[in-house]
Amino acid sequence: MLAAHPIFVVFLAAVVAPLIAQTRLGSRVPVVVFEVMLGIVIGPHALGLVAYDQFLAFMHNVGMVAVLFMAGMETDFTRIQGQPLKLATLGWLASLVIAAIGVAGINAFGGTVTPLMVVIALATTGLGTLLPVLRDGGQLASPFGRMLLAAGTVGEVGPIVAASLVLSTRFSSWQEFALLLVFLALVGTAIAVGQGVRPPRVIALLARTMHQSTQLPVRLSLLLLGTLVFVCEDMGFEAAFGAFAAGMIVGVAARGPDGEAFRTKIDAVCFGWFAPFFFVGTGVAFDVAMLVHSPAAMVLLPVFLLLLLAARGVPAMLYRRELARQEIAPFALFSSVASLGIVVVVAGAGVKSGQMHAETSQALVGAALLSLMIFPTAARMLMAGKPAGREDGEPKAT
């Protein structure tokens, strides 16, 4: 009977998850982990209260778009420019090399892992998971926070761009690269316009309709989101790329005290309505039985978890001159928290295109979930009782 009411079941799980997160034990784990775990429990592979049918599959994709849109809104390159961005870029490139070596090792021992797809998934960092941790700990403005924010930003943006290029099959490689440059130019122009052009009449109209039933600023933002997703897919790229780009544009336009009311509203729409379909839906779609009964998947899961830690954690050594010695290990753990949204997108697209086995996909998603559950908790334990940065609040001199 409940299977006929997926909205009720999904939001029941979405309400229970943050309540669990309020307990002493639950406070150590990101709430999205509980949302995914409850999705597994209510899904067809456990209690069977809800099926991953056409409706939930569609809403799961919409929720993914909304989550990456919000990640784009939180991206602020002005806060990480200079040394943080330089080190983050070098660290991400190093992550690709480490992940590629690890995947080559798996294949050398008889595995059948698609190199590019898995390498991209292993080189992600969950910016959406890091931001609440840094914000709640008052560390966003600290050297540790700025460096970690940069690593998370590049670890989110880089894989999205790479995945869009790798997964695009509509055009030739050169055409894809040219279209990517065109799309990035459009996004850059839109960001510049949103940041610098503010006609008084338009601003007055948006302010006037902000608290009316029309909610024009919110609707315009969602229209932009839909437009860039459509343009991206029409160019042969992944919808995730368009969603993230739309979030960046809206984030720049809505930055500052004047945009606080709008950001509150868009937060409520995306995280209150759309995001539960993604996180709970990810759990519903997760085939635990396949993972448990597949020896290959059971072996790959811990291997992928270790590769996540190696690929994103080892480059933390680049920050030896910027951070205190006791901050390197927490930095490595936080950086190794996988971006669940991107991993799910890459894994799902890989299976759909025939470039990835279902067992590999399930192992990747399982490793991403475990990284969300284990690494932030371990990092917080290491940082407990220690100062957020150096005693003088400044990074080590170079």
Compile the SSE list and pairings.
Elements lengths: L5 H16 L9 H12 L11 H21 L8 H26 L6 H8 L4 H10 L6 H25 L5 H24 L3 H10 L6 H19 L4 H15 L6 H26 L2 H6 L1 H19 L11 H11 L4 H14 L4 H26 L15
Helix pairs in contact: 1-2, 1-12, 2-12, 3-11, 3-12, 4-5, 4-7, 4-14, 5-7, 5-16, 6-7, 7-11, 7-15, 7-16, 8-11, 10-11, 14-17, 15-17, 16-17
Q: Report the sheet with the most strands, covering strand number, pairing sense and barrel closure.
A: none
- Binned, the helix content reads over 70%
Low-confidence blocks of residues:
388-398
Distance between the termini: 65 Å
Total strand segments:
0
What would the average pLDDT be, to the nearest integer?
83
Provide a count of the helices. 17
Which descriptor suits the 3D outline?
globular
Number of domains: 1
CATH topology: Na+/H+ antiporter like fold
CATH class: Mainly Alpha
Q: Compute the gyration radius: what is it?
A: 21 Å
Describe the structure.
The chain has 398 residues and is mostly helical. It has a single domain (2-383), classed as Up-down Bundle (Na+/H+ antiporter like fold), CATH 1.20.1530.20. It is built from 17 helices and no strands. The protein has helices spanning 6-21, 31-42, 54-74, 83-108, 115-122, 127-136, 143-167, 173-196, 200-209, 216-234, 239-253, 260-285, 288-293, 295-313, 325-335, 340-353, 358-383. The longest helix has 26 residues, at 83-108. It is globular, with a radius of gyration of 21 Å. It starts with 5 loop residues before the first helix and ends in a 15-residue tail after the last helix.
